[in-house]
Amino acid sequence: MRAEVVSVGTELLLGQIVDTNAAYIAKALSAAGVSVYRRSTVGDNMDRLIATLSAAFGDNDIVITIGGLGPTMDDITRDGVAAALNDKLVQNGDIAAKLTKFFADRGIEMTESNLRQAMVPVHGKPIDNPNGTAPGLLFEKDGKIAICLPGPPNEFIPMVDDFVSPYLLSKTGNKGTIRSRVLRVIGMGESSVEQIVKDLMLDDNPTVAPYAKVGEVHLRVTARHDTAEQAEQLVEERAALVRSRLGRLIYGEDNQTLEQAVVSLLLNNGSTISVAESCTGGMLAQRITDIPGSSRAFPGGLVCYSNNAKVDLAGVSQATLDKHGAVSHEVATDLALGVRKRFSTTFGIGITGIAGPDGGTEEKPVGLVYIALADSKGCKVERTHMLGARNIVRTRSVQTALNMVRLSLLTPRH
Amino acid sequence: MRAEVVSVGTELLLGQIVDTNAAYIAKALSAAGVSVYRRSTVGDNMDRLIATLSAAFGDNDIVITIGGLGPTMDDITRDGVAAALNDKLVQNGDIAAKLTKFFADRGIEMTESNLRQAMVPVHGKPIDNPNGTAPGLLFEKDGKIAICLPGPPNEFIPMVDDFVSPYLLSKTGNKGTIRSRVLRVIGMGESSVEQIVKDLMLDDNPTVAPYAKVGEVHLRVTARHDTAEQAEQLVEERAALVRSRLGRLIYGEDNQTLEQAVVSLLLNNGSTISVAESCTGGMLAQRITDIPGSSRAFPGGLVCYSNNAKVDLAGVSQATLDKHGAVSHEVATDLALGVRKRFSTTFGIGITGIAGPDGGTEEKPVGLVYIALADSKGCKVERTHMLGARNIVRTRSVQTALNMVRLSLLTPRH
């Protein structure tokens, strides 16, 4: 079965709200094995809505509309879908009574337009909406299906979960289910990752697709098969193949973040870490402490933004600062060694660099960052030149630091 | 002029990511006076992309594509637009040289596919992308315009601001324009803010609409008029009325963040600040140092996650910890006084609390946070009980701390 999602609302076209509902219904459709080749967004204009719906019914079995079911004049979805399917609307007595009671209970005057929400299709039925006054609508006519849902997410999401997903599964017999998994890669750029899995990207079931993120690459493996179990098995086999090629470049799967992976490794290993940050200004500490339970691996950190703080807090020597400058291999090393000693941790991280947009020179340009990792065996420093705005430089620096810790925990240097 | 926005990417159709770019470009289009009647989303499939683009060019003067400009095989936008407009792509020597240098500088091998990013239209030109390797593309052929932009928001947004908006304004001469402004409110909940501006929310030009954010509320004022100047004047008059009602609850406008407002106030006042964070784990320091130039107001901070760190680094007394516990009015006070003394700053902030999801007790539940602000006159503590997940508790705590500093700078306590 094929579906098109049509979002209705001028506020979407004007960019006043972001269409998070469209992403939510897309996941429900793919989980039920319904294919989506296209999504459309139209404003509150009847002619354009009908044109879009008619084209969508021409190409698809199912059209799902989002929004435009309210009581006001610019809520046109109900009438638009009826027109596109050549169906009629009639007033539903139960819903009209419920609406009348709703307004009476609240002491609000009910206007004539509120009763528009009691109109339901002749070839179809209302869909229960426990969180709002507008019911959803199901049209089933001439082999075409329309499902009309209200726009507020607190009404929309429960209706997708409670009605749309079970309904679609009953139609598809849960055949042709889609499953997917994300393999999260760090330490290699998107095009190099692609070279390694290029042949797999040519297959259309399962598919493998790379997505570049800030400081990492996600590989999404997606498979379709008759049952969820079979789709899951296809995904797992292909993921295993990708894992065998990328090895330690893969740090985690699905929603696992890099900081989660690192904190897990630290806790499993009984190791601890402390950090001394200059240009990242607390971002590394914040990422680590975002993970519940990180306190067992992380006693604390220093944000050494000024040179004085580097000397007083982390024990960087004034002579080193004078000779090499704050952004240097030597100062990064002193920060890592100093903070490790101060907190008596297994690892110490030192980060110093130029996040921009100002402060760069020809010799030390914006984006130059030194990241040092100290442990009982000594100190290792990476010099990197990050491209991008201030926030990107800082985020990439934190990614690199976390990955250095991860690799060190995977490959003990003893 | 009429435009259609076409977002390209299977990950959008599958609902794996939310299309925030589409909302961003929609605002730029409406600000330039370009009408958008429709938005489409298609997957990484060449036939469907070309069909969608051809239909879009049939109905519109301008088509803006988002995504699909990367170096990999499933990045099909470049070729799809050229096909739909019957244009050709040629390699641009400057971009090819820049790409080659980019990879050489980083010691990464450049693959053949990376050079696809150097292909530009015969009837058009590349659009500069300072934050990534893929340039955008402008096609101008047979009276139709296509603007192709990359998908990563950190590349996309600056290109909209720096190229697309000025380009569209030059084409439209800026007629029939929408202008809007966001007034950013902190220290009052959405429904209370709404009560204050309720009458203004009934008008349809200008409109006033509230949006709840984590720890703040945004009021969007939008007006439409023949010229940009007239629309701007309508917005400004309405904004002035809102400002007169909300006063100091408004900390900033449009894209100004709370940390920007606070760092500006600190710099204008010649004041400095240092922070000692427990449950926020570096998030406050990270927010402050996100602002370029913050180094003149912020020498550094302490992340005192363990009790030892609170004692050793911030000078919290062991007796206070034993008597009142780490999450207490007294420890917050000691953190603020201690860090202020350590860094010799005008202000010192101390934050201690229970971010969750574990660690709460009946007496000290998850979400209980003490925030202390020390200055030359003493120390003020706010006890708050934040609702929400770990990240929400931490973010709200940082918002409260920044607002305490802001109010203190607006109302000197001398």
Q: Kindly state the mean pLDDT of chain A as a whole number? A: 91
At the first level of CATH, the class of the largest domain in chain A is: Alpha Beta
Shape of chain A: elongated
Write down how many β-strands of chain A occur, each being a DSSP E stretch of 2 or more residues. 17
Largest interface: A-B, 89 and 93 residues
Query: What percent of residues of chain A adopt helix (DSSP H or I)?
Result: 40-55%
Provide keyphrases for this structure.
Alpha-Beta Plaits; elongated; Molybdenum Cofactor Biosythetic Enzyme, Chain A; 5-stranded mixed β-sheet; 6-stranded mixed β-sheet; 14 helices; 3 domains; homodimer; Maf protein; 414 residues; 42% helix; alpha/beta
Write structural notes for this entry.
The structure is a homodimer of 414-residue chains. By secondary structure, chain A is an alpha/beta fold. Chain A has 3 domains: 2-172, Molybdenum Cofactor Biosythetic Enzyme, Chain A (3-Layer(aba) Sandwich), CATH 3.40.980; 177-253, Alpha-Beta Plaits (2-Layer Sandwich); 258-410, CinA-like (Maf protein, Alpha-Beta Complex), CATH 3.90.950.20. Chain A is 42% helix and 25% strand. Chain A has 14 helices and 17 strands. The first copy, chain A, has a 6-stranded mixed β-sheet, with helices on both faces. In chain A, α2 (20-31) runs parallel beside α6 (153-172) and α9 (258-269) packs parallel to α14 (390-410). Chain A starts with a strand and ends with a helix. The mean pLDDT of chain A is 91. At the A-B interface, α2, β2, α7, β10 and α10 of A face α1, α2, β2, α10 and β14 of B. β14 (300-304) of chain A pairs antiparallel with β14 (300-304) of chain B, so a sheet runs across the interface.
